[in-house]
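Observation: inputs received (chain + 1-deoxynojirimycin).
Thought: call the complex predictor directly.
Action: predict_structure
Action Input:
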Amino acid sequence: MPGGVIYQIYPRSFADSNGDGVGDLPGLTSKLDYLQWLGVDVIWSSPTFPSPNADWGYDVADYCAVHPDLGTVDDLDALIAGARRRSIEVWLDLVPNHTSDQHPWFAEHPEYYVWAKGIPNDWRSVFTGKTAWRLDKRFDRRYLHQFTPEQPDLDWWADAVRDEFDRILRFWFDRGVAGFRIDVAHGLINDKLLRDGREYMRERPEAHEIFARWQEVAREYDPKPTLMGETYVSLDKLTAYYEHLDLAQNFDFCRAEFELDELRPIVEQTMREIPENRVPIWFGSNHDHSRMATRWGKGDERRHRAALFLLLTLPGWAILYQGDEIALADGKVPKSRVTDSARPPRDPERTPLPWTPSGEEWRDPWLPLTNTSRNVADQRDDPGSTLHYTRQLIEQRRQLADDGYETLPSSDGVWAYRRGERTCVLNMTDASAKHEGRTLEPWQGLIL
Ligand code: NOJ
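Observation:
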């Protein structure tokens, strides 16, 4: 069972090369040595496309260019080339469910979007909680927006939309992009008859034929680029997405409490249900959720390390969100600095990554850099740091064979599982525990 470590970049908050307070692609490229030292296999960056930033890049105005805040297409080429020299793949974030209302298509090709006369059903916008249908005075009709009103949904029943995205995929695959994370994969296509009910707005079976079509495009390339879905569905529905996606993100795992009784059944169910030719993927943070150091770690770095242990020793793929490797907690963002239109705002998990104790590398950053006590430089100098712990785990995970997962008997509070010849044991409590004669410190994980 193959797998690797994906490192998710939130590009505005990763590394700033020109001192304008916004992270950028040259900044990211300058940190490739760090990422190689850490041992990651893939960089997935949140959107890099031009965008009016109603949803910080998830409202795309041009799918075949780079946001000027982040750099140029040449900068992206340089990133891909630099990453390739270090055997790291670059995956981008495709946002096919909707565009920005500033995308030229919205003016020139209204037929690419979903329209209705009046409010046709009870579908609600995820962000506003109100009707997902916004009146457009140009046509005296309403368009669908599952997210902000500035993000009109594309009509995936339209052949022209499908053709456009085939071209977009090829544009980036031709440049060496080795994969895509697919935004809102579960909500891509909506019921053609616009019937009432959330189940008609999202999770439509017709999405799978679109993924199959993208796989056809991907198969034109060698090695075939990877398609990873943002599949925000319950675990019982996840396997369907594995039919045509290489990876389907497991949100039940990410959103669970860091408790043995919650997480172990999720892992067991995932391993039971995943198709044999597919690989699971685990993560505890991303740019939409409170960081795992806060949510799972609860301020205790030992708990956070236990979470890293789990992510990096389970079979398949693991995603680290930037900062997970240094146990970075959510930033503090005062009301006056909130930028996000979702409620609650997602700014705390998007604050800049501290590289140094002084934080001087971030001059007047777009989101506040409030706490630099956990930073890359200090932790790199300290062999006992969480950063070194993460790096060692990434190194050690290479010894864990490909062949699945099996829960082993263990005492209360201890999670033991077989990975090929090796056994992983993790104490999920804040008291010492025993496993087969060994003492495990609180939250300690061991590969035996
Ligand atoms: C999921 C993305 O991760 C999130 O940041 C965004 O707001 C929505 N999709 C809409 O694109």
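Thought: report the result.
Final Answer: The pocket of 1-deoxynojirimycin is lined by residues 55, 58, 95, 147, 183-184, 230, 287-288 (CB under 6 Å). The two ends are 20 Å apart (CA to CA).
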